[in-house]
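Async update (no meeting this week)

Hi team, since we skipped the sync, here's where things stand on the single-chain job. The sequence we agreed to prioritize is pasted below, unchanged from the tracker. I ran it this morning and attached the output directly underneath so nobody has to dig for it. Comments welcome in thread, and please keep replies under the output.
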Amino acid sequence: MRQQKWYVHLREKFWFVPSIYAVFSLLAISLISYLISLVPPGWYIQAPGFLPITISTANYLYSSLITALLTMTSVSFSSVMVVLTTYSTQFTPRALQDFMQSRITQHVLGVFTFGFIFSLVNLILLSPTDSNHLFMPLIMVMVSIVCLGAFILFIYHSTKYVQVNHLIGKIRNDASQAIEEAYHLPHLNAYSEWENPIPEEEPNVVYAQKSGYTQLLELQNIVNWASRYDLRVESLIQVGHYVHKGEPIFRFWPGDAEPDVAQLREFLLVGNERSNAQDIEFSMQKLVDIAVRAISPSVNDPHTALNCINRQAALLAEISIRHESLTYFADNDGELRFILYPISFRSYLHGNFFQIRMYGKDDVSVIGGCIDALTVVAQTGRNTVHDDLRSFFDYMKEAIDEDKLSQWDYDYWQERLRRFEVELEGEDHVYQV
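Output:
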C-alpha cells in the first residue's frame, strides 16, 4: 500500500501540521534575523524616507497584527465547530475526520500558527538598539497578507464542506482511491489460488496487545518478515474490524529461525476509530449513514438519499471490475508467505443497501433507486458478479408490497424491475480495468 503506518498515524493527529509550521516559524525568525545582521549599517542611512519605521511604530504594528491574527484564528476555530456540529447532526459523525484531516483545514491553521508565533517572537525580541525594526515590520505585513488570504480560503473551504453534495462527492472520491490502492499491488505477488496453502503442523498464535479498530496492514513488510524467518503467516482479522485485547490476530507456522513476534504486531496499525487508508467499507458506510439519515422522518430528504445511492452504485461497479480473491501473497522466490482472506463482493452489496432497505422500505423511490444501482452494476461490472446481483435483487424486491402501490407507483416500480432484468440477461460487456 502507498500509505504507510507512520503516515496514517500522523495524519490522524490534528496538531501535527500546525506544529511543523510553529517550528518553521522559529527557524524563519532566526534565519531572517541573521540575514538582516549582515546588512551594512550605512544602508539604513541611505534608505528611502518612507521605509524607516520607528521603534514605537514597530511595537504598535506587532501588537495590532497579533490581535488580528488571534481574531482570525478564533473565527476559524468557530467555523470548525460549526462544520463539526453540522456533520454530527445532519450528515454522519463518521465524516468528521474528513474535514479535520483535510489538507486545507490543517494548513490554514498552520499558517495562523506561523503568523502568530512570528509576530509574538518579534515583539519580544524588539529593542531600541536593534535595526530590525526597518525590515521585520515589512516582512510581518507580508506574513499578515498571507494569513488574510488563508483566512478567506478557509471561509470558502468551510462553506463548501457543509454542502451535502460536496461531502458526498468527496467521500465517493476517497472511496474510489481506496479501491484503486486495495487492488493495485505492483510490489506484491498476489494470487487467488494456491495449492496446499495451510500446513498441517500446529501453528503459533499472535494475540492483540490492545483493543481498537484495525486501520492498516503493511502487506509488504509482513511478506518480508515471513520470508526472513521462513514462515507462513495467516491473518485472522481484516482491516476495519474491531479487535479486543488478547484476541488472536495472526497465526504462523514456524521455520528454522525464532521469529520476532513483536515486530509482526507493529505491521498492524490499531486505533480508536476506523481509517480510509485501506478500509473500503468505512468510506462506503459514510454514504449509507447519510442516506439513512436523509430518509428518516426528521429530515425527509429522499433526493439526498438517491444521490448517495448513485455514488454507491458507481463504487460497487468499480469494485466488481477490480474484485479478485487475492488471498495468497508470495515472496520474490515464489514461496507462500502471507494469507489474507478478502471481503467478498456479496458482503459489499449487503453492507451498502441492507440498512437503506430496512428504513426506506415505505418509499418506492428509494428502493427503486437501489434497483437502479444494481442495474448500473450489472451494466458496467463484470459478469462474474451477476449471480450475487440476481440474489440481492430478489432480496430488495421483497421490501416493496406491490399490492399497496397506486397505479403510478406500480408502473414506476415495474419499470425499475424490467430494466434490471433486461440488463442482467443482456449481452456480455467488454471491460477496461
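Quick observations from my side:
The first strand starts at residue 189 and ends at 191.
Strands lie at 189-191, 204-207, 212-217, 232-235, 242-243, 248-253, 268-271, 328-330, 336-339.
Reply here if anything looks off.
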